[in-house]
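**Tokenised fold:**
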Amino acid sequence: MWDAFVGLIADALTLNNELLKSIGIPYSFGFAIILFTLIIKVLTLPLTFKQLQAARKMQELQPEIQKLQKKYKDDREKLSKAQMELYKEAGVNPLGGCLPTLVQMPIWFALYQALFELASHGNLKEGFFWIPSLAEPHDLSWIWPLPQTPEGWLHAAALLVLPILTVVTQIIVQKMSMPSTGDQQQAMMSQMMMFMPIMFGFFALQVPQGLVLYWVTSNVFTLAQQYFINKQSEAAKREGGTAVSLAATRVVEEAPAAVVASGAETVKKTEAIKRAKDGKRKSKR
């Protein structure tokens, strides 16, 4: 089953390459990988929008979450229930941002194997603009130990461009999807998420440039998506606030209101009982 999936991706890349080469496009295999990336991004577009919108909604809920944290700071169970109720009313799934990444992970692994399979058959010998070969590298031997000749340094510099772009584009995407807030917990989470681009950058130094080209293209596409989502969010705020913020405020305010209503009802019942007792006493007299 897995081998068939890897073979399907290899066939898709080969088909894209032949199509682009037939119409005279240079660096056809590099553009074939970019075309394959765009197809995957379009197919997963609904999931990606859910991921980006979930991240934006979570940011909008931060002020209300902070209120709940102050209100239930001594009761973890009530805080957890209140937060889940807040997410439910606002239509936010805290785990919604993980699904697109989980869906794409098998594609990454299969693409990694497909590129090695294509390279073993000599299909990735050609470069892509400054990249000497889309099949390189296979390990860190090209950069460590450090090159000893000018040619070695030029070769290393050419292979370093895409890993650097991977780190930079992923940091920009994360900055756009997780804007700064006054929440210390959110700030700590943002700092922890900064390790992800570094980790991907380290992997990008050891895998074929074709796979890194896929990552960079995917990040640029996601960056454009996040830009338009942020614009829509800002426009909604200018029009008087989003449905998420209104729902969140309603949830936070309903709890105190319910308590007041319950207290008022109790007072009314107590006064009614008291009047009834006074009436009985007067009738006995």
About this structure: The chain has one domain: 2-284.
